[in-house]
Specification:
With 515 residues, the protein is α+β, with helices and mostly antiparallel strands. The chain is built from 19 helices and 11 strands. Strand 6 and strand 7 form a beta hairpin.
Length: 515
Amino acid sequence: MAKATTQKDLKQEIATVDRDILFPAFDGILRNADDTLLTRGGADGLKIYDQLERDGSVFGYLNKRKLAVTARPWEVVPGGPGAREKQAAEVAKAMLDALGFDRLTTSLMDALLKGYAVAEVLWDTDGATIYPREIKPKNQRRFHFDVDGGLRLLTPQNMYHGEPVPNRKFIVHTFGDKDGTPYGLGLGTRLFWYVLFKREDFRSWLLFLDKYASPTAVGKYPAGAGEPEQRKLLSALGAIARDAGVVIPEGMAIELLEAKRSSAGSHEAFCRYLDEQIGLIILGDAPGAKDSGDALASAAILRNEVRLELVAADADLLSATLNQTLLTWITELNVPGAIPPKVWRDVKPAEDQTARSERDKNLGTLGYRPTLKSLTEAYGGEWEEMPGRTATGGGMDKNLDKGAATPSIPDGADASAFTEGVDFSNQALYPDQAALDAAADGLPADEMDAAMRAMLKPVVDLLAKGDSAEDAMTRLAEIYPDLDATGLATQLARAMFVAEVWGRLAAQAEEKTGG
């Protein structure tokens, strides 16, 4: 019979590090489970990942990924609506500004390559506040972790167990910790092999160039030539590489043997392939992908979207680390009791203003217009309505917006001449027409509006995508069969029924009166 699960069992971690059968800890110290470090690191450990940055592609792509994060704006938001929370946010924002938040971000993002990054906080006080005077990045090789995930500093006096570090003193940022290990798993474990193959290919390429860049000298001597003559000829062959001219005994000859085939292309192609794989690992896509025409544009858009996802992930991961450590410590030391603020970076993609304006224009044709607030948020600046114009009618009479007809007036003519002496407001209406108009006006406006909205929803969704007018017209033809006009048809059927009934009643009344 299975043991009943208690509330205590649910709260406690069962699959702890000290019970790990796959990668057990030794003497309370947790080891780094990175396979590449275990097989190739040796005594150097993480130093082999430092050497990866000597490769131009690795350094350039890593730097590009870091700059993509620091280029985004950041802000500190209060942890709650209270006055103390707002005060804590203001204090934290001022301290991050003084530290150089982008510099701190760049140093902690070294975890991308090695799996984790460590930085030491140097605190100071001005009598009123306790603030971080400086945050120094530290070499990861100087630290390891115990089975509880606690950071330990290796010292000359304690090279194995290390010494525990004080609270609120070290920031540890971890990347790629899929098994919950504090060491994380950096990109170096995947980049190492591609960089190694690239170096070996370069070595072979240089040997090839050294061998085939210049022709090989071949000396020919007569069949009866003795060993002294052969040595003279060999010496002359060696002099070809360093002297402008050589002297050889009579009867001997020197020829230059050209390379019959070249394999330089295969070396270059292999290096390009390795660079593409390095870019794929770091940037999420190969920057050197071979596309052309529309395929090139599509690949560039997709590549940019992938990079944005990586930038957002990097920024969110780092913000979570700082929110749990530095910002919490600042709040506890300066505004105790307040909910700690949060720092975050805005990684939204820049909106295409042309596509946005085209979308707004398309929605305007359906009777929708943006608010002044949305205009300001979308296009920036300050907006106000132009005198004599409306956002939907462009200055036309309101009746024209409702579809009312207007007479055509020749250019340059005085409009008053066409309306002089005519009073449309006092024109008599037939009683039947007045009754029908009243019945039509009595149709529930909210139901008519709901019916129209339901029918036009696919059209509004299509235009909201911001496609060009040509694409929108093409798609309208495709979605036309799917438009649901059931609600609108019901309302119109009611109106037609009222009109028909009224017409019959009016006709019967006219017959009785002998009309």
